[in-house]
Structure prediction request, 553 residues.
Amino acid sequence: MQSKTTLENRTAESIQQLFKNSENVRIPAYQRAFSWGDKQCSQFLEDLLEQKGKKYYLGQILFEKDGNTLFIIDGQQRLTTTILFLSALAKIKILKGENVEQIRQTYLTDVFKTIDDDQVIFKKVTQKHLVSAIDDTETISQKRIIEAFNFFETELSKLEKENLNLIQQTLENAVISTFYITNKVEATQVFEYQNNRGKELSRFEVIKAYLMHQIYIQSSDNNQANNDIAEIQSIISKTYRYIEAVEGYFTENELLDNYCNLFFNIGGNIEAIKETLKKVENKSQWIKLFFESFVELAHSAKSIVSNKNQSNITNLFFVGNEANWKLVLLTLFYKGEVSGDSFKKILKLLEVLCFKLKLGDYRTDHLPNFAKRYFNQKDIYNIDNLYQDIKNVTETGFKWYWNDGDRFRNIIPNYFDNEKWHYNRNTIKYVLWQYENSLRIKNRSGALLDKELYNSYTIEHITPQNPADIEYTEEFRKNFLQLAGNLALLTQSQNSKFSNKSFKKKSELFQDTALSSYTEIREKNQWTETEITERHNRISEFAKTYFNVENEQ
Prediction:
């Protein structure tokens, strides 16, 4: 389809002029929510401070113009940050007794609105300076809005009045190159042009821009192309909300890679997408199906995360990604087979398999092959077949030679019985965490299932590595110091307090530690080879039972 793109460009516009001359500035639902963290906000502030009142170029902003409304196609992160910054600045100035009416009337109004999911929080923060507790937020982007405002408020409060006025002047007069286009087809064309000039986008954003532009290329009807793009944008809006909902559990790239692998047997990159599209006869239909299927898989990821309070699912996020269990789980949730015996057993097997892979330098992973066979409706391969294949590789490994002399089958008992160095935080932390949970379940105090809490813990030596008041024998250093029995979970903040203090001094600090596993430590008057061995044996027996594939349930 041939179409002339009408592009209005005002190169000398400033931030102040943009907001004074605009009636409605909106972030479309299909755009990514606010995603800037401390790093980007800090850079934003540093850039303004460096100008010292000189002209500052804030970059290019691309809008789709629809009547009196400007929809931001590119630049939403910068404009959202600008409003948050000016709001924090206004709050500081109010505390200093200054008049901020000009800031309020120009920027802190309903002229600028973020995506619907976040608008209530955004307005509350920017217009009323009422900041909710982070725990009360419903989305990651709402949390980031609050964190950005708090960051700017803290940093700006350190500046004198003269510097506050100077930085306000720098931002309001910042030059932006603004582009205005009049329909969705033109938006995809310009966005694709920008992308090809090396603009930094996520892989999904690159693919999204390319495929949406291909809708325009393949269509012979301008109105139909606009309708198709509007439909895709609605789907992308849901996709972004699901991606945001699973942040911290699935990355956008993980979802994209697993989706492209599962559905098309290709990588999640623009080159693979282009090659695949070349071979398709009805390209517009394929593109629409691409986005429809991706949002369905993203929804499956959201369903997984919604079930994170089930220990057998949460444990997988704790144990790590030595094998691609996420693709297996995505496929199970996508197909809806998430109950019954086989499903529960698969979850346990995946946990055991990933832990075993932690203990050796193994690179092969056949889980994606199993997942794709199970996903393929033409293949007579059901959930029971999937379970059996995962059970086999959990017992003997992905390669036949991995289990020479039952090495892979017995890798966990050998780790505890024959190795003397367990101070590998990535490995022993998971064992100690599950050991703690086993004690908590016995005490009826409830298992710990919070991922952020898990990430806050590190490993502490009960008797210190390098004490100042005692010299260890060579035998003790070699055979006891790094044993699991001499290692305990401790939060990173607590770890710095313990340092290399003696066991006697640590015992006093242990009183403030709420973990059940510290009970067996606190009751001891000394911590020698005997105590270390006793505790090591308890942890070892627990692990051998816990990771026994015959016990999956």
